[in-house]
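Consider the tokenized backbone below.
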């Protein structure tokens, strides 16, 4: 721990487990206090088990073990009022917010577009795109008003860069996240706030937990140049690098964190 984020406050969505928890813990290791939320409810994702309140409690435990403060509550990213309420409680405790990590996301039930219901489409976009907007919309005014600048990291997906059959709603929503990132970059740059998109590839999270290990191995050997799935902490390290002063000129970028999968022509 170097304390490079001492005195900073990070606002993180989807923080109950996986990448969201890794972001919270990694930033706490660097001295940040955390405002976190997660729907902690049913996730329409290949039968993957939902994150639970106990999962969010475990994130709290891990952050507090690092002697950092955390305000964490259950909230649905698709509900702007609920997201704002969590942020307001964090602001009452810490008085500021410096970092936004919009991480909450669902995959949806894989199906061809012709077999995808309007309800499924709306459910995926509600979390993956509207939820990202809500997280940003709630917090950005406080970054601007503080006059200290800040960093926004929006979690997209490698599927936004390289389509996969059966994931139309997911790919569309994650492509929209890249568009939102670019809009934020050009709107907020002069206020000292930067925005960048992260596109994780195959990562060991709750979303991929139901995929058999032999299938993971086969896929990684065939499609991922480094030959394996990534870990949530590897994504967290990239986002940490984006919030540090050394990255203050990085704005509006789209960064694949996928072991070279997007570069692979197979």
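A designed sequence for it:
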């Amino acid at each position: 721990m170097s304390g490079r984020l001492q005195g900073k406050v990070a606002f993180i969505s989807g923080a109950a487990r996986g990448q969201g928890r890794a972001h919270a813990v990694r930033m706490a290791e660097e001295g940040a206090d955390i405002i976190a939320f997660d729907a902690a409810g049913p996730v329409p994702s290949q039968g993957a088990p939902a994150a639970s309140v106990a999962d969010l409690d475990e994130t709290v435990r891990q952050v507090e073990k690092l002697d950092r403060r955390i305000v964490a509550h259950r909230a649905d990213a698709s509900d702007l009022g609920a997201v704002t309420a969590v942020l307001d409680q964090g602001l009452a405790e810490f008085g500021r917010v410096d970092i936004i990590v919009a991480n909450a996301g669902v995959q949806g039930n894989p199906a061809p577009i012709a077999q995808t219901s309007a309800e499924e489409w709306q459910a995926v976009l509600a979390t993956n795109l509207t939820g990202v907007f809500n997280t940003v919309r709630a917090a950005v005014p406080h970054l601007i008003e503080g006059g200290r600048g800040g960093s926004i990291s929006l979690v997209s997906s490698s599927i936004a860069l390289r389509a996969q059959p059966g994931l139309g709603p997911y790919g569309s929503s994650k492509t929209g996240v890249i568009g939102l990132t670019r809009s934020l970059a050009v709107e907020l740059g002069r206020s000292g706030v930067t925005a960048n998109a992260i596109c994780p590839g195959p990562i060991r999270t709750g979303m991929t937990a139901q995929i058999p290990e032999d299938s993971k191995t086969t896929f990684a050997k065939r499609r991922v140049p480094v030959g394996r799935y990534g870990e949530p902490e590897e994504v967290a390290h990239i986002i940490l690098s984006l919030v540090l002063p050394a990255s203050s000129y990085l704005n509006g970028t789209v960064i694949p964190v996928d072991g070279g999968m997007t570069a692979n022509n197979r």
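Strands lie at 9-13, 33-38, 70-74, 99-102, 150-155, 193-200, 254-257.
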